[in-house]
């Protein structure tokens, strides 16, 4: 089980590759860092399905691991993580809101960048609103953020 440095984003452009969640793939492309995500740009490369396996569980992490002053945001970048028992410290503004942890005082922005890059946030939040958990990718573009993929990944208490 990978615990760090194990995530990479594969950019395919507008073409949808013939793969599904759980497929094991061989990707050929150009590696780079783009707006905070380590990625392989496969537009001029290839994506080949080589098998399938069980989808790995997300990692449960604390906010103080991934927040801007945290000790693990870069090593967890692009990895799927879960934070639990947090609350909104701000209302949603644009495509972001901030969550905090009552015990440690840690805080991080939650961005809808991965779920909806151009429109309003699909998961609006209100200051003080409690969340049982939020599942998303650690996204570091200068400052770490948490990027859920859909509204189903933002679960109220």
Question: Explain this structure to me?
Answer:
- The protein is mostly beta strands.
- Helix content is 3%, strand content 46%.
- The protein contains one helix and ten strands; from the N terminus they run E-E-E-E-H-E-E-E-E-E-E.
- It has one helix at residues 63-66, and strands at 9-11, 23-34, 37-52, 59-60, 80-88, 96-100, 107-111, 130-141, 143-147, 154-156.
- The strands form two sheets. Strands 5-6-7-9-8 form a five-stranded mixed β-barrel.
- The longest helix has 4 residues, at 63-66.
- It starts with 8 loop residues before the first strand and ends with a strand.
- 27% of the residues are buried.
- The model has no long low-confidence stretch (mean pLDDT 90).
